User: Fold this.
Amino acid sequence: MANRAAAMRYARALFSVCEQEGELERVARELAEFTSVMDEHQLLRKSLLSPAVPPGPKRVLMETLLGRSEGYSERTVRLLTLLAERDRLSLLGEILEVYGERLMEHDGVVRARITTAAPLPTAREQAITEQLGTATGKKVIVETDVDPSVIGGVVTQIGSTVWDGSISSHLERLRQRFLGKA
Assistant:
């Protein structure tokens, strides 16, 4: 939990600076790219995340890496160097996640998860996406899941709000009524 709070502080500060400079998308892209490079190169990842390696050499390694790769913005270089210097590179994934959430919010985009018993036809998925966009007033990015226990209908989740229109939940409510518990 402490890591999430620290990641949120870094992401908020970075977002604020990048918003003023008009580099929101660029920095998000660069951080995702660097995270991907770390994931692909396990020796690099171990070196940058190992508690056995002091922060000083991590910073030098980071400066060397970023100095050789052209195209990273000053904000990205500063953040990555700061994280290396403070031995906080383990937060990079969470910082990227929080930053991405803030970017989506800034752009008026929400993520929705739709769960159905069987895969949705493309036309039906598009219709649901449009309806959710109308209801939220935002652009909706839909992720679909298939869960046979739903039996039928749709369960939709946006953030912490869930709309359960599944047959299984209707059957459970009927069962509760019949048993006199509702």
